[in-house]
Amino acid sequence: MREALEAARRGQASRGRRSVAAMAMVAIAALLLGSCSSDGDSADTPTTSEPTTSTEPEDASTTTAPDSGGETLDILVTNDDGVTAPGIDALVNALEELPDVDITVVAPLENRSGSSDTTTEGPVAYSDATTVSGHEATAVDGFPADSVNVAIEEMGLDPDLVISGINAGQNLGPVSEISGTVGAARTAARHGIPAIATSQGEAEEPDFESGVEQVLAWLDENRGAILAGELDAPDPGGPAAVFNLNIPTCATGEVKDYVEVDLASDAEGALTLEVDCTVEVADPDNDIEAFNSGYASLTVLTAT
């Protein structure tokens, strides 16, 4: 395991348009323009469709939604599990209920887990698609990083924020280096757009509902800074901010509010988890300890 991660890290030094590590799942990009019904069929022959303007949902809830301040927040949603994955659908369903939010979904056509920020050489095909609930989306026949590049460079989108996920399975410690979910967020940051990678703890049935709650809580706290262009980046004058939010799936107890911690350095610890959401740990040292103690762990990453 250590050798594989070391190889992945060496591959990271040549980020950009090159292959990185294993890739496992299909990620489909979706251009979500509000809530709309569909027959549920996925994309057929890839085309280069023109972007359209998303519309705000008619019945947006204001009960638990962040205070919009009247200014529209444009969010690009992507992932590495694919456009038909349940995690991205759960996230989009929740985001579209917020006031003054426009959502566009652009994600890989197929599962591309473990692909880091790998990109495809040459043109990348993309086509109309839908999420499993029928939300309009754009599917990119490539990697998560390709999806972000297509959205910005080909479709001309200029979002205020990119949310990648919600991924099925945590991306903690050094494992985050090979995560396609994180790779998409880092790609967005290199375009000057703040981004957050979001992942739900591995389980037979990941608790995406808890994951959505934590993502919305983070968005509520940071919406003003995002719109003002003041979301802190780790390197002043460098690329935009990149955040990595991991939410445990609790067998017993409940997920604790997210806490900002350092990224763990132990690769083995990132894979051998013992989550106990009932224990009380006041000050977790890193993202793995926080996650294992039932906290949603938030780390700040660099874009490189």
What does this structure look like?
The protein is α/β, with parallel strands linked by helices and 304 residues long. It has a single domain, classed as Survival protein SurE-like phosphatase/nucleotidase (Stationary-phase Survival Protein Sure Homolog, Chain: A, 3-Layer(aba) Sandwich). Helix content is 25%, strand content 20%. The chain has helices at residues 2-12, 86-95, 144-154, 180-190, 208-228, 267-271, 287-292; strands at residues 26-27, 73-78, 101-108, 110-111, 126-130, 136-140, 161-168, 195-200, 242-247, 256-260, 295-301. Mean pLDDT is 81; it is low at 1-68.
Principal-axes geometry comes out as: globular
- Poorly predicted segments: 1-68
For the record, the count of structural domains works out to: 1
Overall pLDDT level: 81
β content, as a range?
15-25%
Tell me the distance between the termini.
23 Å
CATH topology call: Stationary-phase Survival Protein Sure Homolog, Chain: A
CATH first level? Alpha Beta
The secondary-structure element order is HEEHEEEEHEHEHEEHHE
Helix content: 10-25%
Rg computed from alpha carbons, rounded to a whole number of angstroms: 18 Å
Number of strands: 11
Q: SS-based structural class?
A: alpha/beta
CATH architecture: 3-Layer(aba) Sandwich
Largest sheet: 9 strands, mixed
Can you tell me the CATH superfamily? Survival protein SurE-like phosphatase/nucleotidase
Main sheet: strand order: 5-6-3-2-7-8-9-11-10
Helices, strands, pairings?
Blueprint: H1 2-12, E1 26-27, E2 73-78, H2 86-95, E3 101-108, E4 110-111, E5 126-130, E6 136-140, H3 144-154, E7 161-168, H4 180-190, E8 195-200, H5 208-228, E9 242-247, E10 256-260, H6 267-271, H7 287-292, E11 295-301
Parallel strand pairs: 2-3, 2-7, 3-6, 7-8, 8-9, 10-11
Antiparallel strand pairs: 1-4, 5-6, 9-11
